[in-house]
Design goal:
Layout (H helix, E strand, L loop, with lengths): L5 E5 L3 H13 L3 E5 L2 H10 L4 E5 L7 H9 L9 E5 L4 H9 L4 E4 L4 H13 L18 H31 L6 H100 L1
Parallel strand pairs: 1-2, 1-3, 3-4, 4-5
Helix pairs in contact: 2-3, 4-6, 6-7
Length: 279
């Protein structure tokens, strides 16, 4: 396969393009940048590009649309492509491989991750074990820990799928005579078989974890409902107290008005009596 020398980076973020470009140039590659899918496709059709790194989330057209255009173009369909994104979900990785990408490079990119992807693109295989280059996550709660275990379980299945696809690529691209590549792939498949057996053994634990999550979520819902009811009762009690206070205040005002009238009447009588006494 032709050696990769010229690489295109398609990303609407200038900072992301700059970061990845520096890492690619450190690998001795020439880098061309595009800030949109439209600009990137134009460059691919007019310049000699050996591989492309494509951001997933972009305005107007996203990275998967760009990948679809490339793979449906007779002149570009064999171009090695890697998605480049901050979306760490397994679903996004599966969508990338399913649409023809050979790798999924996580943001922020690292020198090790870039080297791993470039080797896969150069060898024309799907990059394996990209999870090892993802940003570290430290679950703080038990639920986060359980979901993290489920994520690892799903990632292992994706890895198995990638290795199977790689074997198919070797056959489809007529590389049967490349003994080293075939031997490596069979070793990976043997490893995947062992991992799959381990995953089967862990399925029961994952089911228990899911049941634990459900119980915790039910408990949380019950607490939320109880809190809501308590707040409603407290609000009703507050309204009752406010009404009682208003009633008492009104009575006090009435009594004050009556007392004031009586005092004024007594004062008038006293004044009249004083006037009579004088005259």
């Amino acid at each position: 396969m032709k050696k990769i020398r010229n690489v295109l980076v398609i990303d609407d973020s200038k900072l992301a393009r700059l970061t990845l470009s520096r890492l690619l140039k450190a690998e001795g590659l020439s880098v061309t940048e595009a800030e949109s899918v439209k600009e990137g496709i134009t460059i691919l059709r007019s310049e000699a590009i050996d591989a492309a790194f494509i951001d997933v989330q972009m305005p107007e057209q996203d990275g998967f649309e760009a990948l679809k255009i490339i793979k449906n173009d007779p002149e570009l369909k064999n171009l090695p492509c890697s998605m480049y994104s901050g979306d760490l979900s397994i679903d996004a990785q599966q969508a990338a491989v399913g649409n023809g990408a050979q790798a999924y490079l996580f943001k922020p990119a690292t020198a090790e991750g870039v080297a791993h992807v470039l080797k896969a693109l150069q060898d024309n295989i799907i990059a394996d074990d990209m999870a090892g280059f993802a940003p570290a996550e430290t679950p703080d709660l038990k639920i986060s820990g359980i979901r993290h275990a489920q994520q690892k379980h799903k990632q292992a299945l994706v890895t198995l799928d990638k290795r199977t696809r790689n074997l198919a690529r070797v056959i489809n691209y007529g590389q049967k005579d490349t003994e080293a590549a075939v031997e490596s792939l069979f070793e990976q498949l043997a490893q995947s078989k062992a991992e799959l057996e381990a995953l089967k053994n862990s399925t029961q634990h994952l089911a228990e974890d899911e049941a634990t999550i459900q119980r915790l979520e039910n408990t949380l819902s019950a607490l939320q409902e109880n809190t809501r009811q308590q707040m409603e009762e407290e609000d009703l009690t507050i309204r009752r107290i406010e009404n009682d206070l208003r009633s008492q205040l009104n009575k006090a005002n009435d009594n004050l008005r009556k007392a004031t009238k009586v005092a004024l009447g007594a004062a008038v009588v006293a004044i009249v009596a004083l006037i009579v006494a004088i005259f």
